[in-house]
Write a structure and sequence with these properties.
- The complex is a heterodimer.
- By secondary structure, chain A is α/β, with parallel strands linked by helices.
- Chain A is built from 8 helices and 9 strands.
- Chain B has a 10-stranded mixed beta sheet with strand order 4-3-2-5-6-1-7-8-9-10, with helices on both faces.
- Classes of the chains: A alpha/beta, B alpha/beta.
- Chains A and B meet through α5, α7, α8 and β7 of A and α4 and α9 of B.
Chain lengths: ~260, ~375
């Protein structure tokens, strides 16, 4: 009961319409891990009531399948079954290495990964799976796989963006803000923020560590219909606590 | 002055001179540059349709948005697209800029090249080759403007994307050729200032006759603010901001103007600057539980306090208020029987500064710093 109500704060802030193309960027840091948002969206993508029309394509640079399987099981979702039903397509990219000097070519590494994803989506579309979610965990490791070429990663993300528009997909990416904190102009981080329709930042509280509150989420949602003449951007901010089987989201000061 | 910009672009270039060039700059704090770009595009389109502008057509080089976005946007903003193929063409650098897409069979092929599309969109797959890009732009523009001396406008929806694919000299070269081409009436482009080096931005500003920068309403001071303050600043900056424009006149003079802008559901609105200094000042004071400022009464009372220095005062004997005066005065009032004697006794009980001069020559204390005449 409780976690239905509390994680609905997050759903409310996201206001996802699963048929509309949207880019969600999750930005976290060492002190506040934002992976739970990714798991939450993954669970929601696979638990849609019109379950036969949804599918998730997962690009894993960070963890193997077993990791996500274990976590989603605790959230009440069986990834193995979904994989068998072809509703969950998992790309294990932990060992992906783009060949050197890959930037100018249209073969190998990221371009061929893109073409594979495109094939999968077309196939899913043919099977009438209309609500497709592409998830990338995480962008900074994709950059490592691309030999540090930020431009190459941005090209790949641009092409994923074209896919979201063409097929009405959702694109969800995770990036770690503090990796770029020493850079004057963190191009990859900023480009992602420009690209995002929904930007979710997981940050620690300004007052420091606490046992009851693990951090705060700030959700900036661009392009929300708020009625005639009103601003189309909406900001939400709330605190969260990550528990074993769920995450609790609550407004500051409302926890008893 | 968004209107002035649009008028400037509408009027176009004089014979033998560079075309007016507008740079729209934004940053992540106010990422609404594309709204301004779309606003300018809409205004120029309506001027072209009404026959008021020097330019007879627009070549839109689309890097960050798809052609269909622009079709929908122009339609929603009241631009009639019935004869659009005669006055606007889109060079599609969004769909497949690097040629990664196979010619796979699927929705891809039919969607982008439908004859039913009101605007002609030509796919461009070699964004790294700026010479090719330039020739494609000129070719499309000349097709719109016809054989004679007719002119066309060029708009680039993201120079930032161009910089990702090509070097600064090549981009600057392309833009320079665009603005000095004798068939180009005007040009405008968008860039995100926080994604480029200062010299790249400076190079583009040098090439532009007008630079429009978006800035947040409140410049936030990082780190010093609490969560709630940061959030309210974020909310405010996501709805409105300031639009600064710098015009470079032909005679070399520079004119700077400023406007406020608001983001609405339908797009962007510009309004004259409102004086919100009070709010800005309030924003700079830290939010604490006690009052840091004086009220008017408190200010007057403070000015009335007589300081216990010999030279300050009104000639009467100085008495320091030690908290007992009001009490004894109260007693005086109550005890009507009390004689002056008692009062004198009470007087001697009050605090008093008795200052004996060293000599009569000594000047009274002044506020001047005696060390002032030292020449350190």
């Amino acid at each position: 009961m409780d976690h239905h109500r509390s994680s609905s704060l997050l759903d409310e802030a996201l206001a996802l319409d699963w048929t509309q193309p949207r880019v969600i960027v999750i930005e976290d840091c060492v002190e506040t891990n934002g992976a739970f948002v990714l798991h939450h969206v993954l669970k929601r993508s696979l638990a849609l009531h019109t379950s036969s029309t949804s599918a998730v394509i997962f690009l894993a640079f960070s963890q193997p399948f077993s990791h996500y399987d274990r976590i989603l099981r605790k959230l009440g979702c069986n990834l193995v079954t979904q994989k068998d039903n072809k509703r969950f397509v998992f790309f294990n990219l932990l060992t992906l290495e783009c060949p050197d000097g890959d930037e100018g070519k249209t073969s190998g590494g990221l371009p061929s990964l893109y073409r594979e994803i495109q094939k999968v989506i077309i196939a899913l579309h043919d099977e009438n799976r209309k609500s497709i979610t592409i998830m990338i965990d995480d962008i900074s490791l994709m950059e490592v796989a691309a030999n540090g070429s930020t431009n190459h990663v941005l090209d790949f993300l641009h092409y994923c963006h074209t896919l979201t528009l063409e097929f009405g997909c959702l694109l969800v990416t995770v990036n770690h803000g503090d990796i770029y904190s020493s850079m004057e102009r963190p191009a990859l981080l900023l480009q992602m923020e420009y690209l995002a329709d929904i930007l979710i930042k997981a940050e620690p509280l300004s007052t420091g560590l606490a046992t009851d509150v693990h951090g705060q989420l700030t959700v900036l949602n661009k392009g929300i219909c708020e009625g005639q003449g009103n601003s189309r951007n909406r900001t939400h901010n709330f605190h969260f606590k990550v528990k074993e089987n769920s995450v609790e989201c609550f407004y500051p000061g409302t926890r008893t | 002055m968004a209107e002035s910009i649009c008028r400037n672009l509408r009027d176009g270039a004089l014979e033998g001179e560079h075309a007016p060039a507008l740079s729209i700059k934004d940053s992540i704090a106010t990422p609404f540059g594309s709204d301004v770009f779309n606003y300018v595009l809409t205004k120029l389109s309506s001027n072209i349709l009404a026959g008021k502008s020097q330019s007879q057509g627009i070549v839109l080089v689309a890097f960050s948005r798809s052609p269909s976005f622009y079709v929908d946007f122009l339609k929603t903003n009241g631009i009639d697209l019935v004869s659009a193929k005669k006055w606007i063409s889109i060079l599609d650098c969004y769909t497949d800029p690097l040629g990664w897409k196979d010619s796979l069979k699927g929705p891809l092929d039919t969607k982008n090249f439908s004859l039913k599309d009101p605007i002609e969109a030509v796919l461009f797959r070699h964004v790294r080759n700026l010479d090719l890009l330039l020739s494609a732009i000129i070719e499309m523009g000349e097709a719109l403007a016809g054989q004679g001396k007719g002119r066309f406008s060029v708009s680039i929806d993201s120079v930032t994307e161009m910089f990702r694919h090509a070097s600064l000299p090549s981009v600057a070269n392309l833009l320079s050729k665009v603005r000095s081409h004798d068939r180009i009436s005007s040009t405008f482009w968008l860039l995100h200032s926080d994604l480029h080096e200062i010299r790249a931005i400076a190079a583009l500003e040098y090439l532009s006759s007008m630079v429009g920068s978006l800035e947040p309403m409140n410049l936030s001071l990082n780190g010093q603010r609490g969560d709630l303050e940061k959030l309210s600043l974020l909310e405010q900056n996501s709805r409105k901001g300031k639009f600064h424009v710098r015009f470079k006149r032909r005679n070399g003079r520079v004119r700077v103007m400023c406007e406020d802008f608001h983001i609405k559901q339908s797009g962007i609105n510009f309004t004259p600057v409102s004086s919100e200094e009070g709010i800005i000042n309030q924003g700079l004071l830290p939010k604490v539980q006690f009052n840091l400022q004086l009220s008017e009464k408190e200010r007057i009372d403070r000015a009335k306090v007589v300081l216990p220095f010999e030279h300050q005062g009104n000639g009467e004997p100085m008495h320091i208020y030690d908290g007992r005066r009001s009490l004894s005065e109260g007693k005086d009032e109550k005890a009507s029987v009390l004689t002056e004697n008692l009062q004198t006794n009470e007087d001697s009980g009050k605090g008093e500064i008795i200052y004996f001069r060293d000599s009569d020559d000594e000047m009274p204390d002044s506020d001047e710093d005696p060390d002032d005449d030292l020449d350190i």
